Amino acid sequence: WRKERNTESDFHAFLTRFNNYLSSRAGRCLQCRCNLQNMLYMSAYDKFYGTQKYTCYDCTKQYCEDCEDDGGVYYIGGSCDNCERRYCLHCKKVDVCTSCDNWYCVDCIDFKKCSQCDGDEHACLDCILADRVWGGCRNNCCADKFWCNYCVDYRGAVSWCDKCSESYCRDCCNSDVYAVEFCDYCEDSLCGQCRVNTKGWNRCERCEQLTVPVLMEDREKMQTQINELQTQINELENEHREQSNEINELKREVKDLTGGSGELAEV
User: Fold this and answer.
1) CA–CA separation, 54 and 66 (whole Å)
2) CB–CB of 57/85 below 8 Å?
3) What is the pTM of this model?
């Protein structure tokens, strides 16, 4: 609504009256006590049209833009890149997405923290949905998670297969034989299926050992499928047997009714 600026509108007239009121009030920074009179006006002309300067949008207290706390954090923070509100240090509601570097207040954008380090790295949902941060696993086990770039690059949060480029999270790499595993002999990172499909001289002795659990898992899965198919076959055979018995019973009834001639007797 602030982008539709009209100097003839009722809202613009209100801004003018409100700025006249603000100019008549004494205003000081609550931290350094510098004079802010004639500086607390509502912007009526630039890109911050409709916003009040040096004022927290939550507690409405005023701070100058030079005052910092002992940690070097400004008492009046930057504006949200979505709604352009500003908040003071005590009412801090604005944080930065460490992926796109945009600042958002918590009322506009939901943030998610890195699932591994749970530290200062966090991303907005826009970056997660746009795949600007890593938030997926080949096993679809991480729909509500994401990993910061540092954990992906240096902490082994994610592993990629050198051959098929599929990615797996650390938990899957530690528990799933089909996930990516690093061979410390040939230095290949391959998923289980690609390692099995790599044959001949391209597979080192250590890789041969790493294929054993994959092949055993394949065998168990195949045996499970065979057992399921055998169960279906047995069920079909039983059904066929029951239907055959019903047909034979019907034939006997027909024979009894026709006196053995196959034709129904006249009544």
Assistant:
1) 11
2) yes
3) 0.48
